[in-house]
Amino acid sequence: MQSEELPVKPGRPKPWNDPRIRSVVFQLLAIAAVIWIGYTLFQNTVNNMASRGISTGFGFLDETAGFGIIMSLIEYNETMSYGRTFLVGLANTMLVSGLGILLATIVGFIVGVARLSSNWLVAKVSLAYIEIFRNIPLLLQIFFWYFAVLGALPGPRQAVNVGDIAFMSNRGIVLPKPIFEPGAGLMGLGLLIALIVTFILARWAKRRQAATGQIFPVLPVGLGLIIGLPVLAYFITGGPVSWDIPELGGFNFRGGITAIPELGALLLALTLYTASFIAEIVRSGIVAVSKGQTEAAAALGLPPRRILRLVVIPQALRVIIPPLTSQYLNLTKNSSLAVAIGYPDLVNVFMGTTLNQTGQAVEIVAMTMAVYLLLSLSISILMNIYNRAVALKER
Amino acid sequence: MATPHQSLPDLPPPATQRGLLGWLRENLFSTWYNSILTVVIGYWLVTTLVPLIDWAFFSAVFTGEGPQSCAPEGACWIFVYERLGFFLYGFYPEELRWRPDIAFLLFAITVVPQFFPTPAVIKKWLAIFGLTGLPVAGYILIAGGHFGLEPVATSRWGGLMLTLILAYVGIIAAMPIGTALALGRRSEMPIIRGICVVFIEFWRAVPLITILFMASVMLPLFLPEGVTFDKLLRALVGITLFQSAYMAEVVRGGLQAIPKGQYEAAEALGLGYWRRMRLIILPQALKIVIPGIANTVISLFKDTTLVLIIGLFDILGAVKSTLSDPAWGNVMAEGYLFVAFCFWVFCFGMSRYSHRLEKKLETGHKE
Q: Domain residue spans in chain B?
């Protein structure tokens, strides 16, 4: 009825003013631009590679590499292929990123909590640490640890001796290496059983608490099991583990496990740099939990440790997890700075030496970038799953 | 006759809660574990800081000539002093160093008033100059080749000068590109949005080193034959692409934080898309994300050190290359501390300034 009384029906706007037509035109233009740029780059690259005589394809991965790598987690020697160097570099990148994430999280949480300590000295020392380390470039910190600190250690003959079992020299840190003899499998089995039992125990205790309100001390019992069972297995089987203690022979140490100084410097710098960011994230997460929550929990009669564990930390984690994820991603990407001191990570081994030897820039750069894309994606996905577990569940 | 009741004045708190003693009790020795922590950390601080301060100041050598006047037990600051020209300008010819000096004077004139109470009109025009005129003037002065100025190849640029150039150009190029990408990612056109998402996520997922490698190894392959790019320019392209992706995510955070009502109200006023963004949305969004922008700027400033890996001599590269000089012996700690101090002053200053700006612009309209 009313629509008939409307005097003017708004007509269609002119084609060049119609938002729908305009959006289609813009998008077509954008597609055309992307295709044109992509095509030009592709053509240029093909022409350039042809004129420089660079071969294409991934055939080079099967060729013999012919260069040595100072540290490798998987078996490697000079006669192996370029494809193998890719795997060696990837393993080294994952090792340093994984250890770095673990250590930076621990240090970051400790410093973040210390920053809020009631002890004036502890709070100020943490503040000084955070403000110094996050305002200095990571590359400079890596150089500092590598050249000025670890490089200044004495040679193997004058190595710093830690109780005759571990040694620190400018060739790296040598630690005793455990040798598992037959029967050690029982210890692993004990550990596995302890972990499974603890897991089942925790679920049972949670259900019982929900049903009856009774609390079961999961933490001490679980820890007792996890430590106790392997130790028990050790004594039952008569001590099947011996230690290969490093000793000085010639100009270097023999035996034991050697952590090369490149790894030590990189790990130290990555940990201390990232931890200073994580500390600030943790601090802001804890501050974001309102005081009323702590007071309400105290009013319910919860002891301080349980307030922290059951009320403050779960709420702080919601604020902490998303920025923490991006710090983990940063650490993984920053591990590529290894190339500056010669730690054999993916960028150094594959994008450096292998690229120089084969000259196949396009394939190698693409593979390296794809690896980092995949690493970033998998960390994001894992952290998103964890985030979903701690996020506020609105009903 | 009864005297009216009069209360006595309050007694002062006990001596253990007043003054220095009270402060110590409350802040350092409140519980037994706090006391242990205080003692342990205090001991550690004294044993490390005292020798460090002694090395850096009291036993250090500040004046003198050459390596022979340095003492082994103290820092050798003469090294930094004698090489300062190289650390600041790299291989830039000594007799032409007045040109970058003028460029940086212009830079200081543009930037410093922004930190102090100055009339808004002056600030505005200085900012416009800083974004348009300054890069051109700076390029003419430093690179030369026009107006009878002797040309200086970019391969001779270096030191702190190069660091500042990389950071400044990176920021003023990444800011508009990043804003455009953020708007694109929030666009209603699916294809534009898709292109922006792929672009942003790609650059954010790979390390800057690989981008710099790509810029220095692959960019020549991408370009038509005969077109060659300067190494510095290649590094700048890489840094700008990398930073604009991060900037885009920061700006997007601000765009998302603006309540929907603002968008709708601007539309109801009959403003077109660009006016809506320029007059209503972006001023509010950019204000919210000032801390994020400052963080991006700081991280860009620190990331400029990575160019030394592709062979440019920024301040870290310049210092590092002089450390292997056998005449000076071991001056590594002095050199690295000098660079660390330079970066620390810039980064810490920027973060303090962004805190201040954030407080000043706080209008209480936050949700």
A: 152-361
Identity of residue A133: F
Q: Could you say which of 2.60.40.10, 2.40.110.10, 1.10.3720.10, 3.40.50.620 is the CATH number of the domain covering B152-361?
A: 1.10.3720.10
- Cβ–Cβ contact B98 with A under 8 A: no
What long-range pairs does B214-218 form, CB within 8 A, spacing at least 24? B214/A365, B214/A369, B214/B238, B215/B310, B216/B310, B216/B311, B217/A355, B217/A361, B217/A365, B218/A361, B218/A362, B218/A365
Beta bridge partners of A162: A166
What is the ipTM metric for this complex? 0.84
Question: Highest-confidence range of A112-116, A218-222, B85-89, B327-331, by mean pLDDT?
Answer: A112-116
For A100, phi then psi, to 5°, come to: -60, -45
User: Which of B 239-298 lie inside 8 A of A, CB atoms?
Assistant: 298
C-beta neighbour count of A178 within 10 angstroms = 11
Scanning every residue of chain A, which has its alpha carbon at the shortest distance from the alpha carbon of B304?
A137
How far is residue A143's CA from residue B345's CA, in Å, rounded to a whole number? 19
DSSP state of A185: H
**Cα torsion at B54, B56, B59, B63 (round to 10°)?**
-160
Answer whether A136 sits within 8 Å of B192, measured CB to CB.
no
SS3 A251: coil
Looking at chain B, how many residues does it have? Answer: 367
Judged by phi (left if over 0) then psi (alpha if -120 to 50, else beta), residue B152 lies in beta
Which chain B residues have a beta carbon less than 8 Å from that of A355?
217
Dihedral sign for Cα A36, A41, A44, A50, please. Answer: negative
Dist CA A293 CA A315 (whole Å): 10
**Residue A265 at interface with chain B, using a CB cutoff of 8 Å:** no
Q: What is the mean pLDDT of residues B21-39?
A: 80
pLDDT the model gives residue A273:
94
pTM of the model: 0.84
- Note which residues in 31-60 of chain A have CB less than 8 A from chain B: 31, 34, 41, 44-45, 47-49, 51
Q: Are A143 and B320 a contacting pair at CB < 8 A?
A: yes
Q: Which pLDDT does position B26 carry in this prediction?
A: 75
CA B43 to chain CA centroid, Å, is 34
**pLDDT (tens digit, 0 to 9) for every residue of chain A, 395 residues total?**
455 555 666 667 777 777 778 888 888 898 899 899 888 888 888 887 777 777 777 777 777 777 777 777 777 777 778 888 888 889 989 999 999 999 999 999 999 988 888 888 888 999 999 999 999 999 999 998 888 888 777 777 777 777 777 777 777 777 777 777 777 777 788 888 888 988 898 888 888 888 887 777 877 888 888 888 878 877 877 766 777 777 776 666 776 777 788 888 899 999 999 999 999 999 988 888 888 998 999 999 988 888 888 888 888 888 888 888 889 988 998 999 988 888 888 888 888 888 888 877 788 888 888 888 888 888 888 877 887 777 766 65
CA distances from B308 to B28, B188, B296, B311, B366 (A): 45, 42, 20, 5, 42
Residue B61, SS3 per DSSP: strand
CB atoms near residue A158 (< 10 Å):
10
Cα separation, B308 vs B310, in Å, equals 5
What totals of helices (H) and strands (E) does chain A contain, helices first?
A: 14, 8
Cα B105 to the chain's mean position, in Å?
19
Q: How close A362 gets to chain B, by Cα (Å)?
A: 7
Structural domains present in chain A: 82-148+259-390 (1.10.3720.10), 177-243 (no CATH)
